Amino acid sequence: MELAERLSALTGGALGNVFYASDGASAVEIALKMSFHYWRNTGLPAKREFVCLRHGYHGETVGALAVTDVEVFRDAYDPLIRRAHVVMAPDARQAAPGESAAEVAARALAELETLLRERAGQIAALIVEPLVQGAAGMAMYDPSYLDGARALCDRYRIHLIADEIAVGCGRTGTFFAWEQSRAGEAPLPAHLWPDFLCLSKGISGGYLPLSLVLSRPEIQRAFVADELARSFLHSHSYTGNPLACRAALATLDLFAQDNVLARNRERAHWLADGMAALAADARLRHVRQRGLIWAADVRDDVAGADFAARFHHAARARELLVRPIGNTLYVMPPYVFDAAQARWLGGQLLATLDDVTTDVTTTREARHAA
Rounded to whole angstroms, how far apart are CA atoms 296 and 138? Predict the structure, then answer.
């Protein structure tokens, strides 16, 4: 109860109910099931479809795969999956010459509205990763997309699910990434929050498995009835595990006692400074940062085959654990580094890039000579 009350307070009470689980995919499934069941309980049983963003990732259980658009995880199980509608992501890397990130977001919203206008009577919810799509290669986008998505979901009476499993708990500069949907307006008005918000990973400081779904009180009220079929029938063996919840409370205590959000904003500057030389390298494009997530794409012509694997192994020789996504380099450091460590990290990444791209150049030259 204490954890639920403290998390709800962080939303100003807008999300007043919490449902617990043990992992991120389970949290996503809870939100999907709760949305579908809500509409059935309120007399709209036809609303059973979902919408996700292109290249979005929300987990690898069968329900979560339905709203995951990453082929390597999804396609092997495709016959089992109830597929969702997939719409344009607001990924700023798609910008045409002269087009801003906000204009890319506007194009994505226009495509979303076309779908919602046609299928509102059948669609239950839209699910998004706020601000950063992780498995898409740390695709970052303009916060205006979140405002627009909220307005469209209101207009067409569709739930909005924010998957903050990777981007929540201070990673993007605010405790919830969604708080940046209306820049400069704090606290965020109740009507601008999503209908569901999923958290995991950082909420327990990485010590114990825990996930949860925050939802609006009016959604919870739809399940309060004597009739069993109207209840939300979902349970896990370790739902609301007391020890995991205590770890989460300790995490919230640390956020308050150590002023983590303010310090993370300072760390974000250290990270940017530490990556400056790497960011200026001509082998990289689409350099981007959101809070304590930094990413850039290595040009195809210098990356070569199997770039991610080669970079990972070369980085280990330099005392780094790095897992590129395709040609995308990214870092999501823990909230304990200082300016000197950020500079060391940037230097080691640049040296590793020299190692692996030099190998590509040498191989090409050898083939040409042969």
Answer: 9
CATH number of the domain to which 272 belongs: 3.90.1150.10
Q: What is the pLDDT of residues 145-181, one digit of tens each?
A: 999 999 999 999 999 999 999 999 999 999 999 999 9
| Number of neighbouring beta carbons within 10 Å of residue 56 | 24
Range of the domain at 328: 260-369
Spatial distance between the Cα atoms of 130 and 97, rounded to a whole number of angstroms: 25
The residue from 257, 288, 321 where one domain ends is 257
Number of domains in the chain: 2
User: Residue 359's pLDDT band (boundaries 50, 70, 90)?
Assistant: low
Residues 282 and 133 in one domain: no
The residues with which 162 forms a beta bridge, in sequence order, are: 128, 197
pTM: 0.95
195 contacts: CB under 8 Å, gap ≥ 6:
35, 125, 153, 159, 160, 161, 215, 216, 219
332 Cβ neighbours under 8 A, 6+ residues apart: 171, 292, 293
